[in-house]
């Protein structure tokens, strides 16, 4: 690697620690940052510190928030009979963008992964069970990712929730809108057939 003065080398190193940022991108970001005005750099640093210091997990749903409970849990207009279970807070943001769901959420902060030593006790499952005992929830929508760990987590949650008489559903899997059948893999096609709908 080319020699850089220590301050910029450390900045490059910091950017390179971010997911999806390689050495070239980290270098480009570092030099861009150096070219920013002092006010912009100070604001950027203040925003980083504020996000780290002022955000925490909602005590009800586990979503990232600056208030407790979060604005979704405290919104009385939301449908309290459904809980949409996701792996991470960024999944809540993705769902809120489409404006098709008006119920509550629950963030697991990961998935069960026996291969990696992650058990149900290591993710946010106990709080979900407590919520189900203390509320009028009629349906839990499980929206974990379509990975082996996501599927294992979905099956585990379904197994412990169904005996309480609560409907458990899973997001449909299959062909994406605008995709061609010839380019789809076998698992995607299989799920598309399995989740077919009457028209």
TrEMBL record:
<dbReference type="Pfam" id="PF13662">
    <property type="entry name" value="Toprim_4"/>
</dbReference>
<dbReference type="GO" id="GO:0003677">
    <property type="term" value="F:DNA binding"/>
</dbReference>
<protein>
    <recommendedName>
        <fullName>Recombination protein RecR</fullName>
    </recommendedName>
</protein>
<dbReference type="InterPro" id="IPR000093">
    <property type="entry name" value="DNA_Rcmb_RecR"/>
</dbReference>
<dbReference type="InterPro" id="IPR023627">
    <property type="entry name" value="Rcmb_RecR"/>
</dbReference>
<comment type="function">
    <text>May play a role in DNA repair. It seems to be involved in an RecBC-independent recombinational process of DNA repair. It may act with RecF and RecO.</text>
</comment>
<dbReference type="Pfam" id="PF02132">
    <property type="entry name" value="RecR_ZnF"/>
</dbReference>
<dbReference type="InterPro" id="IPR034137">
    <property type="entry name" value="TOPRIM_RecR"/>
</dbReference>
<dbReference type="Pfam" id="PF21176">
    <property type="entry name" value="RecR_HhH"/>
</dbReference>
<feature type="domain" description="Toprim">
    <location>
        <begin position="81"/>
        <end position="176"/>
    </location>
</feature>
<dbReference type="Pfam" id="PF21175">
    <property type="entry name" value="RecR_C"/>
</dbReference>
<keyword id="KW-0862">Zinc</keyword>
<keyword id="KW-0479">Metal-binding</keyword>
<keyword id="KW-0234">DNA repair</keyword>
<dbReference type="GO" id="GO:0006281">
    <property type="term" value="P:DNA repair"/>
</dbReference>
<dbReference type="InterPro" id="IPR015967">
    <property type="entry name" value="Rcmb_RecR_Znf"/>
</dbReference>
<keyword id="KW-0227">DNA damage</keyword>
<dbReference type="InterPro" id="IPR006171">
    <property type="entry name" value="TOPRIM_dom"/>
</dbReference>
<keyword id="KW-0863">Zinc-finger</keyword>
<feature type="zinc finger region" description="C4-type">
    <location>
        <begin position="58"/>
        <end position="73"/>
    </location>
</feature>
<comment type="similarity">
    <text>Belongs to the RecR family.</text>
</comment>
<keyword id="KW-0233">DNA recombination</keyword>
<dbReference type="GO" id="GO:0008270">
    <property type="term" value="F:zinc ion binding"/>
</dbReference>
<dbReference type="GO" id="GO:0006310">
    <property type="term" value="P:DNA recombination"/>
</dbReference>
């Amino acid at each position: 690697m080319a020699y850089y003065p220590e301050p910029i080398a450390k900045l490059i190193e910091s950017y390179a620690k971010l997911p999806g940022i390689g050495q070239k991108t980290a270098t480009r970001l570092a030099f861009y940052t150096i070219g920013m005005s002092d006010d912009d750099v100070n604001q950027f640093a203040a925003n980083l510190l504020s996000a780290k210091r002022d955000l925490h997990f909602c005590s009800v749903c586990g979503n990232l928030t600056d208030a407790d409970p979060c604005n979704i849990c405290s919104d009385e207009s939301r449908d309290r009979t459904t809980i949409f279970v996701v792996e991470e807070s960024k999944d809540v943001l993705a769902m809120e963008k489409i404006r098709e769901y008006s119920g509550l959420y629950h963030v697991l902060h990961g998935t069960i992964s026996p291969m990696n030593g992650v058990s149900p006790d290591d993710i946010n499952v106990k709080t979900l069970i407590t919520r189900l005992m203390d509320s009028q929830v009629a349906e839990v929508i499980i929206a974990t990712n379509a990975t082996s760990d996501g599927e294992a987590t979905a099956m585990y949650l379904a197994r412990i929730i169904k005996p309480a008489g609560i409907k458990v559903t899973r997001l449909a899997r299959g062909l994406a809108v605008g995709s061609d059948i010839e380019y789809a893999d076998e698992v995607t096609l299989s799920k598309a057939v399995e989740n077919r709908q009457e028209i």
